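User: Just a sanity check before I run the rest of the batch. Below are the structure tokens for the first item. I only need the designed sequence back.
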């Protein structure tokens, strides 16, 4: 599969190159990873995204050494680390649940790995102070976990993961237990640190907004396999499969017809069919269109009707029932729809862009 290059223009990358080849892991009859292949460039932040049970967390646990794959290779700078124990892999991991030691203060939590490696006390203290400063907690070293907020605890966990200067940083839904605004702030902080340190990072999340806003590339998984790996804009605008199109962002499913000329007839318009299909027999079909790809024109003779609307700041989402009974969503600038309330008759038409057929 061809994948897009990372989108970031950060300083020269210094992290490790990660290659995953033919990774397979089954638990009885349940296959969690089914021949997963994936490349992560040095210094890149890659997000693993997919529905529950798609294998993303299993993949991360294999990278960390907590799961042993049934087959396949995990190459870090060309060396297969599958046989290497977790504590010797030169990786750092941040968990969803923080996993701080409650009897140690923040500085000692950060320095714990260094202590296990028999680093001297003075160096441990210096490194812990340096990292607490890096994550924005320079005055919190003496505080214990119960004296820290959730966001502060996760910053300490991040500092602890970075203390050993790992070549690979693994993040297992580290923000999911935090309040919304704290999540946004810490997300930005993680990205700043990752770019500043140039560390290769794999980030597992179920939050699409998080993945699209944070990662250089997003790998969408399904049933243990890779569906598509691409930069966020490409993933959103040019999904490789109907599954990716339906999973990432919001999609309308609108009935129409495929023509024999590689085109789609939908909502009274004739549009290019993504993927072509010229020469195929004409047939009824269902097409996938983003809410922002629909134009809405008010008019008393319109065949469609607005049933509800929801304000989202700069944009407003209209819920519209088409003449055939199909319910669709359309996103328009809020200033353009202030007079369009429930019951307003409208005409919905697609913008002139290729459409993807649902499967």
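Assistant: Here's the designed sequence for the first item:
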């Amino acid at each position: 599969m061809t994948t897009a290059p990372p989108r970031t223009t950060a300083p020269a990358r210094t992290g490790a190159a990660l290659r995953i080849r033919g990774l397979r892991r089954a638990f009885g009859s349940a296959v969690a990873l089914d021949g997963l292949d994936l490349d992560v460039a040095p210094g890149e932040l890659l997000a693993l995204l997919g529905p529950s049970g798609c294998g993303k967390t299993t993949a991360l646990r294999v990278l960390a050494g907590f799961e042993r794959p049934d087959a396949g290779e995990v190459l870090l700078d060309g060396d297969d680390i599958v046989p290497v124990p977790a504590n010797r892999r030169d990786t750092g991991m941040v968990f969803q649940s923080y996993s701080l030691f409650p009897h140690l203060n923040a500085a000692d939590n950060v320095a714990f790995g260094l202590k296990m490696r028999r680093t001297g006390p003075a160096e441990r203290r210096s490194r812990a102070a340096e990292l607490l400063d890096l994550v924005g907690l320079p005055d919190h070293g003496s505080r214990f976990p119960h004296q820290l907020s959730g966001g502060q605890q996760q910053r300490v966990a991040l500092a602890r993961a970075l203390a050993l200067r790992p070549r690979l940083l693994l993040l297992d839904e580290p923000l999911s237990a935090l309040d919304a605004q704290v999540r946004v702030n810490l997300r930005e902080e993680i990205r700043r640190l990752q770019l500043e340190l140039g560390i290769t990072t794999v980030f597992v999340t179920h939050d699409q907004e998080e993945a699209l806003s944070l990662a250089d590339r997003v790998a969408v998984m399904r049933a243990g396999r890779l569906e598509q790996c691409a930069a966020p804009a490409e993933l959103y605008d040019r999904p490789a499969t109907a599954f990716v199109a339906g999973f990432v962002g919001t999609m309308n499913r609108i009935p129409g017809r495929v023509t024999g000329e590689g085109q789609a007839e939908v909502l009274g318009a004739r549009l290019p069919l993504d993927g072509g299909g010229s020469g195929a027999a004409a047939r009824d079909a269902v097409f996938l269109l983003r809410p922002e790809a629909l134009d809405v024109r008010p008019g008393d003779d319109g065949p469609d009707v607005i049933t509800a609307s929801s304000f989202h700041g700069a944009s407003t989402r209209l819920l519209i029932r088409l003449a055939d009974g199909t319910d669709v969503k359309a996103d328009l600038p809020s200033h353009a729809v202030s007079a369009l309330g429930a019951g307003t008759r409208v005409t919905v038409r697609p913008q002139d862009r290729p459409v993807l057929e649902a499967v």
